[in-house]
Amino acid sequence: MTATNYAVAPGEYLEEWIEEQGLSQQRVAELLGCSRKQVNEIVNGRAPITNETAIRLERVAGIPADAWLRYEAMYRADLARIADQEKLAEHADKIDPNAATYLRALGATAATRRKPGELVSDFLAFHRCGTWEAYLHLHESANKGDYALAALKEAGATIDQTVLTSWLRAAELTEAFERGRQFVYDADKLRDALPSLRERAATPNSTMLRDIAEMLADVGVLFLVVESPKSFPLLGMTRWIDKRVPVIQQTGRWGKDGFVIWTLFHEIGHVLNDPRGEMHLEYSSEKKRNSAAEKAANSFALEVLFGESGVEEFRGLTRDNEIKRKAAEIGISPGVAVHQLHRRRWLDYSFGNRLCVDITGTYTA
User: HEC states along the chain?
Assistant: First the structure.
């Protein structure tokens, strides 16, 4: 049933019946055995229909008592909902427009700023929070739980909290995330799987992400690609389910293989080397990667993908065939090499792009 922005008092149904019967409120009061004032207050929504009154109305009007009580319950619930939304409307400006657009795209709300209370109510329902204060408490204390929004402050990030938490919550609503709750993570098996993961990532195609998700699932790591809100500054992130199951979540917005593969191994570095329960965010901007944990994750990804020599063997290479040949020698995707060359400004951004494979949309949670 679609919620309305008004409440219908059960007294309106009583008034309609009185008019149909051609009776006066005084006469109905006499039939009910109560005062005219009580009937008038019920008609005008100032007095509730009690159990006793509902039973009497059933005998007088022939309308079942439970129907009158349902009308009364609906009226009181609608009053409470309308009052609640009026209060919630005060927080509508705290929801980033991108978060609101994202929730509408997910079907979590149909409300816009024109219905601010409904928008905030749907936002809270999406996050399973009863009040705005509960939402703030849950996510401001997230560094003690599944989310570590303190990482935003550490990185000097400007990403809006409502946008980030909506993207995180969208992942939790997928069937894949629910299955992931049952995973049993084994760090040793993940380390042993690194060569196989690297080998599979060397040939990016339409099945690569799904294959990698299955390989990671075998060692108890949940891998998700979840479409993100617009203007989202993240490539991916790592978090944990109950500090038991690591989750690597990527946005898919930067769908070239170099971005996706590098982010994957960067996040695996967080899973293996950082304390359980922490969340780490991989930003699209190099300026955001300034913590010791981020630098360590970068070093991990660099060693796994490029080996001891790192990217040095690619320095000075500008032609596609040169980069492709060198990438084949060390067993990585040429797009990964181009990604690193671009990041280091060793290769102009107008070069090497034909070596990158677009895998956007090939796998979603």
Answer: CCCCCCCCCHHHHHHHHHHHHCCCHHHHHHHHCCCHHHHHHHHCCCCCCCHHHHHHHHHHHCCCHHHHHHHHHHHHHHHHHHHHHHHHHHHHHHCCHHHHHHHHHHCCCCCCCCCHHHHHHHHHHHCCCCCHHHHHHHHHCHHHCCCCCHHHHHHCCCCCHHHHHHHHHHHHCCHHHHHHCCCCCCHHHHHHHHHHHHHHHCCCCCCHHHHHHHHHHHCCCEEEECCCCCCCCEEEEEEEECCCEEEEEECCCCCEHHHHHHHHHHHHHHHHHCCCCCCEEEECCHHHCCCHHHHHHHHHHHHHHHCCCCCHHHCCCCCHHHHHHHHHHHCCCHHHHHHHHHHCCCCCCCCCHHHCCECCCCCCC
pLDDT of 360 over the 80 cut: no
**What type of residue is 360?**
T
Residue with tokens 């032609």: 319
- Which residues, other chains included, contact 270 with Cβ-Cβ below 8 Å and sequence gap of 6+? 238, 278, 280, 293, 297
For residue 344, being part of any structural domain is answered with: yes
Q: What is the pLDDT of residues 168-219, one digit of tens each?
A: 999 999 999 999 999 999 999 999 999 999 999 999 998 999 999 999 999 9
Q: Is residue 101 part of a domain?
A: yes
CATH number at residue 68: 1.10.260.40
- Which residues are 283's β-sheet partners? 234
51 & 188 share domain: no
Comparing CA positions, the residue from 259, 265, 284 lying closest to residue 221 is 265
Instruction: Give the count of domains, the chain.
Output: 3
Same domain for 195 and 333, yes or no, is yes
The whole-number pLDDT of residue 346 equals 96
pLDDT at 147: 44
Q: What is the mean pLDDT of residues 306-331?
A: 94
Q: Taking a C-beta distance cutoff of 8 angstroms, is the pair 68, 54 a contact?
A: yes
Domain membership flag for residue 324: yes
User: What per-residue string of b and e applies to 95-109 under the rule 16 or more CB within 10 Å gives b?
Assistant: bbbbbbebbeeeebb
Domain that holds residue 104: 95-142
